[in-house]
Please model this.
Amino acid sequence: MTNLRKCAFLLISLAAVGPIMAQQSTPAQQPKPPEGSKPMAIKGAPKDPTELKIDQLIKKMTLAEKVDMIHASSSFTSGGIPRLGIPELTMSDGPHGVRLEHGRGWDETLVHVFDSATYFPTGVCLAATWNPQLGYQQGSALGSESNARGKDVQLGPGINIIRTPLNGRNFEYMSEDPYLVSRMVVGEIKGMQSQGISACVKHYLANNQEIGRSHIDVEMSERALREIYLPGFKAAITEGGANTIMGAYNKFRGQFCTENAYLIDTILKKEWGFKGIVISDWGAVHNTMEALENGTDLEMGTDLSMLPNPDYHKFFLGDTVMTLVRDGAVSEALVDDKVRRILRIMFKTHMMDHSRAKGAFDTKAHQMVARKVAEEGIVLLKNTQNLLPLNKNVRRIAVIGANADRPNAQGGGSSQVRSLYEVTPLQGLKNANSNVEITYAQGYTIARGAQADKALIAQAAQAAAQADVAIIVGGWTHGYDYAVWKDNAYDAEDVDKPDMNMPFGQDELIKAIVKANPKTIVVLMGGGPIDMTQWENTVPSILQAWYPGLEGGTALANILYGKVNPSGKLPMSFPVKLEDVPAHKLGEYPGDDTTVRYNDGIYVGYRYYDTYKVAPLFPFGYGLSYTTFGYSNLSVTPAGPGKVTVRFTVRNTGTRPGAEVAQVYVHEAKCSVDRPEKELKSFEKVYLEPGASKTITLTLNKDAFQYYSEAKRQWVMEPGRFDFLVGSSSRDIRLTGNLEL
Ligand code: BGC
Model:
């Protein structure tokens, strides 16, 4: 195997936990199907003309043809039936760009340019914009690229709740807060599907850590499930209309998520009425009978073309299904239901009549969407001494840190993108102002276990001392070489971070730079918080840049120079230290060999910090601007049964145009069950010229006031006094009102 070949192999094996063959799953070995999980009956002839066409097609299919449609035919396709004009379903990762090609027909040793795509800011950066319209735009640009690259299903968005900062895939996800996730995901899915392809929201459910992801059994209360972990998925399906959803690798209450009776059959299909396709994560099916009966519609997995004798018929939803149906052990109607779902989405996305309008990829317009998202997603965490925006007196800048000069598009695992180009922070600063002299010093070396490098630090400190301003770009890393990504990556699939400490001796570096030049700005890359305790109070300006996509360096420079006024807000709390995190303090992480218990329940993120009075370093919803905003005139009025109108005015009280995310939190003063100190229930991003103001009117419905009662097994609104907290972050509440409901 050449090195490249090895990389490709590693990549494929990471995308699925080994080729799992269905031989292990003969009927004799099947555990009894869980009680209550009956084959789904299809009653009566559907009236809808498309459903009638589907009936006709299903009637013409042999059992073998049906079964071919419910499992992979290559690493990113599932079977079609050419004689009936049914194409293969073609899929691609991932949440922030169309992945480079893999699998059948692709020679991995070739360097392709025709499988490039726009590398958009990752999910967490998109969420930090708090701008659902921008979510729509990014979704729509991504959908267009997916379509142009010949895909039918784009494997994203990823919306698992950010429960611990250590999760290696937080960068792909959105938030610790179910309401923010819901608003952002609906916009993104609608945008993606406006381009004719299908979104695939993932990973359903509770894939909140990478350690043990292939087997860990997640236990949580029904209340935590309903209030924290389900709402984003529910919104994606019932409001966003996602055509497909991906079952997670892990278990939930003892059963693998991809074939979980409660999650898929009871909640997704019966409660929410989902009519689309449940796709397994790659290699996530473990049992033919459970997958058949509990609602898995399509089994995807390892690219067996890499192995000597690829045979996808050996998948759990392959030949074994034929045997089971022929032996009368399962009803063919079960298979028909899966085929029907696949065909339904094929008709809906114009795969059958080939009339889908063509998309485009690598366009200037898409690159500009990526830039806009980065400009609105980068968060200004601290800005004292008026260091930012950089003023005209700044003639020499020392740019320091390996992250300043490092591309990220190919990092992180299955979400990798072959970006046509990527403006790094260093490049962005160089492009921004030719009158400013830029020197670059690496400062630290990216390698697992690398310690502070005295020589690199001395060199960087010297550069800083000679400059007007030092900009350190550090934080987490992503790994851009597939073969070794786990050696140096912290934000990546299949690995969690060992702790929250700055790797590679960056604490020492930052301290030395501040000493050499107090005018130091720290820019942090990464999917979430990092421990800043050693230097935070000595550094005048700090920004969180996430992984900001192919135009990230431009966006960052625009913010540093004040061409763009920052408006990003944290979609997650930044704790002072790891020990403060509720998952670690109240709950378990990463659990034992088999199980992780979410004893933290509903107290995830700020719900915990605020209720338990633990001060975070930077709170949820927080982010600075170069201007200031004033809040006034709050009114809270009933607007019909269970509805409340919240009205207030936001004014730009500073001297620059800017955008503010006005946030509305709700708290029930007294309740028979514990409720968090506050919960986000509405928000709006407003753009205001200096001196301008806008009256914001937001209507909250009963969802904003209910909790999930475990005793009654339903949502309950308990009458009483509700407080309405309006502000600029979860801890910067400017107006309060209340109402008896
Ligand atoms: C990941 C999914 C991804 C799939 C296909 C899996 O390892 O968990 O997010 O879509 O591989 O690459």
Summary: Residues 669 and 721 are 6 Å apart (CA to CA). The pocket of beta-D-glucopyranose is lined by residues 15, 93-94, 155, 202, 281-282, 414 (CB under 6 Å).
